[in-house]
Design a protein that fits this description.
Layout: E1 7-9, E2 12-14, H1 16-19, H2 30-39, H3 42-47, E3 53-56, E4 59-62, H4 63-68, H5 77-87, H6 91-96, E5 105-108, E6 111-114, H7 115-119, H8 128-136, H9 141-146, H10 154-166, E7 172-175, E8 184-188, E9 193-198, H11 205-208, H12 212-222, E10 226-231, H13 232-237, H14 239-249, E11 257-259, E12 264-267, H15 270-280, E13 290-295, E14 301-310, E15 313-321, E16 324-326, H16 328-339, E17 344-349, H17 356-360, E18 364-369, E19 373-377, E20 383-385, H18 391-396, H19 408-414, E21 417-421, E22 425-430
Parallel strand pairs: 9-10, 11-16, 15-17
Antiparallel strand pairs: 1-2, 3-4, 5-6, 7-8, 8-9, 12-13, 13-14, 14-15, 17-22, 18-22, 19-20, 19-21
Helix pairs in contact: 5-8
């Protein structure tokens, strides 16, 4: 039986099992530590990297440790997080503060209650998360609970923030200091990643203009920050895909790794590709000329990459995986190029991607494309491609108003359609 690999750090030579429980090791999970040893040098792997530590009575441990080993009884961990974010307390201060300390009382219109009682009362017109977000922005408590929300996305923001919190990451909410005058809904300092929740109506052209999302991306990019913008309809209808994408980008994915060298490139039919892409790609399926797959030794489909001919170029239109496939994209790409010579172009959506995968596989940035728009029908919660509402559609659809003398924009407005602009795209070329 082969001997377990030994890792040298801090003057010790130990196996992974032996490192677990050592005072220098800030991880409790074998698989997590094994993965970190593969990615980082031993000392960095042991001491955290992206792991945020919280100190209580001189002991520094990550959030999950304290939840398993609470320093006092009956801790409400959401309250602790709120005290830290909204009131700027340290971890120990937030825990040691009595549940009903006098400072937490607020008087509104002559009535005095604990803050949480106000938040749960009928007077509070917004979500609890938005109250704490406003307090972090410097709002008075009275204004924070009595002022109606600017938009209907606060519940979505709350849900998104709860997901990031569940990943064990420390983050700021409502930060206006990094790219003023813009606000960042969520900023994760340890990752240098910001996350925005884009409610459809309140991020429409009417409310934000056509370049708002690009300008915000660009401001972050100039600061070396990756901005990820999550649209309301993606979060509502493709939440599992969004969560998986976010966990991967934040380095928190626990998906098993599969190496492409142990997989076989295949050519899949349209139906197989459609089912796969609808489940694993945030933009779903789109018709293409070829669907190249990657299957493991058991025959399970792990990836789909689709291509279609567009003039002199092959257009790489979709790539998605069901697991973390190391080297999968480059292997599929290499096989396709052997079968179908010619230059390839593809695009990275700046709302969710920085194009890193393409840079790593030899693509060259050709152009930054201006923001483009989709349409949303008032009363619905789904973006639709602009091509779905060309002038011919208005003319042919009996349910839509049409006038020969009106432009597409005018017809859209008359039919209660509004435009929502993305952040633009990066166009890459591989020759």
């Amino acid at each position: 039986m082969p001997k377990a690999k030994v890792y040298s750090a801090f003057g010790k030579d130990l196996t992974i099992k032996e490192w677990l429980g050592q005072p220098e090791c800030e991880h409790e999970n074998y698989s997590t530590l094994k993965g970190r040893f593969q990615k980082y040098d031993p000392e960095e792997a042991l001491t955290g990297g992206y792991i945020e530590l919280y100190e209580y009575n001189g002991l520094k441990k990550k959030w999950s440790y304290w939840k398993k080993n609470p320093p006092i009884k009956d801790i409400n961990w959401r309250t602790i997080r709120t005290r830290m974010q909204a009131q700027g307390m340290s971890f120990q201060e937030a825990i040691d503060l009595p549940k009903r300390q006098q400072i937490a009382l607020e008087t509104i219109d002559g009535e005095t209650k604990h803050r949480m009682d106000w938040v749960k009362s009928d007077k509070c017109v917004v979500s609890q998360w938005l109250v704490w977000k406003r307090l972090a922005d410097g709002w008075s408590f009275k204004d924070a609970i009595l002022t109606p929300a600017e938009n209907g996305s606060s519940l979505g923001e709350q849900s998104l923030a709860a997901f990031i919190e569940a990943l064990g990451l420390e983050f700021d909410i409502g930060n206006r200091n990094i790219i003023p005058p813009y606000e960042l809904d969520i900023f994760i300092p340890s990752k240098n990643i910001a996350i925005e929740f884009n409610g459809l109506y309140w991020h429409s052209e009417e409310k934000r203009g056509s370049r708002y999302h690009y300008n915000k991306w660009n401001a972050c990019n100039e600061q070396g920050i990756q901005l990820i913008q999550i649209w309301e309809d993606d979060w509502k209808y493709r939440q599992d895909i969004v969560k998986r994408m976010m966990a991967n980008k934040l380095g928190c994915s626990m998906e098993p790794r599969v190496y492409a060298r142990k997989c076989q490139v295949t050519v899949e039919d349209k139906n197989t590709a459609q089912e796969f892409l609808e489940e694993f790609h945030i933009q779903g399926f789109v018709l293409a000329s070829y669907y190249y797959g990657l299957r493991d030794m058991d025959g399970d489909l792990l990836a789909i990459c689709s291509f279609k001919k567009d003039g002199e170029y092959w257009d790489l239109v979709r790539y998605a995986t069901s697991k973390k496939v190391i080297g999968g994209f480059s292997k599929v790409l290499k096989k396709f190029r052997l079968d179908h010579p010619g230059p390839i172009k593809t695009f990275a959506d700046l709302t969710i991607s920085d194009g890193d995968l393409y840079y790593k596989t030899g693509f060259v940035l050709d152009k930054i494309l201006d923001p483009d728009y989709s349409y949303v029908m008032s009363g619905t919660e789904v973006r639709q491609h602009k091509f779905a509402f060309r002038k011919k559609r208005f003319k042919d659809d009996p349910d839509l108003f049409f006038s020969e003398h009106m432009t597409e924009r005018e017809l859209a407005a008359k039919n209660n359609l509004y435009r929502v602009y993305d952040a633009g795209k990066l166009r890459f070329i591989l020759k």
